Task: inverse folding
């Protein structure tokens, strides 16, 4: 009798990794969509400024977000005689780990809106979107579905 | 009383009741925004989000998950004063539990730190603080 052992572990791991990354990307897209919806709108620059970095899912629209902000800010400057100056963030954050997505903003004033200033109370977008039960529940139940099919 | 207001009252009580913090800023702990005529450094408390968490981490039914922003705001040239003030605030809040006006606070754990500078009318404002994840439920 001859017994042969063939491991499918690599293939199975690959399938799980792909599914987990899809779930993370779906959550990131959902978070960004909510942030775009709840952002205070003055020029539209903030709502246009959110990007996702997730190399594992081939996703990085940082440069697109910069372009969207440029268009929104210039449109606003045309309609507002006082002009409008949008400063971009000095440091770009990128996802580096295997199961990681970064949802960020390319404009500097996103920090001031999120956490407040000496003259303005915080108007949080990120925190509200990240803790939205609809998103978190879907994320965890999808993850559980992959790990316990 | 809701979980949110109970948590805010609880955190406010802890921060204003600490003698080290009082020695640094007297009672200048504010909800969301300091009054315009505020002179000197201060602490800001702000609720960033609230979500019902169903069954909480302690098994309490109907607990709420609150993201709480706590930050020091100072006007010095660097972050040193803000660090001293915020370190005290963090010491007072981190890992604490408690009761406040019919609300049980099950846990208070820092999720992340934040640090940024705001320049306004030629003045520098240092903002240094943390985001705390707080689970609470009505008694």
Result:
């Amino acid at each position: 009798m001859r017994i042969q052992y063939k491991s499918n572990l690599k293939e199975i791991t690959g399938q799980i990794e792909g599914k987990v990354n899809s779930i993370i990307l779906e959550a990131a897209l959902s978070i960004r969509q909510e942030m775009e919806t709840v952002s205070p709108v003055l020029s539209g620059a903030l709502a246009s400024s959110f990007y996702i970095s997730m190399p594992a899912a081939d996703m990085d629209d940082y440069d697109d977000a910069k372009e969207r902000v440029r268009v929104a800010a210039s449109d606003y400057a045309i309609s507002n005689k006082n002009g409008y100056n949008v400063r971009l963030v000095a440091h770009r954050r990128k996802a580096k780990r295997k199961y990681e997505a970064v949802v960020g903003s390319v404009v500097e004033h996103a920090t001031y809106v999120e956490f407040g200033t000496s003259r303005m109370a915080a108007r949080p977008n990120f925190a509200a979107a990240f803790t939205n039960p609809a998103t978190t529940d879907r994320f965890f139940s999808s993850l559980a579905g992959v790990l316990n099919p | 009383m809701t979980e949110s207001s109970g948590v805010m009252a609880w955190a406010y009580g802890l921060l204003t009741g600490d003698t080290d913090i009082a020695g640094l800023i007297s009672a200048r702990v504010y909800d969301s925004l300091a009054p315009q005529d505020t002179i000197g450094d201060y602490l800001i408390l702000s609720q960033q989000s609230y979500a019902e968490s169903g069954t909480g981490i302690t098994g309490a039914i109907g607990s709420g998950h609150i993201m709480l922003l706590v930050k020091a705001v100072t006007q010095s040239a660097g972050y040193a004063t803000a660090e001293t003030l915020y370190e005290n605030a963090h010491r007072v809040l981190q890992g604490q539990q408690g009761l406040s006006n019919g609300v049980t606070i099950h846990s208070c754990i820092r999720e992340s730190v934040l640090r940024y500078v705001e320049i306004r009318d030629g003045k520098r404002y240092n903002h240094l603080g943390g985001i705390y994840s707080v689970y609470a439920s009505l008694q």
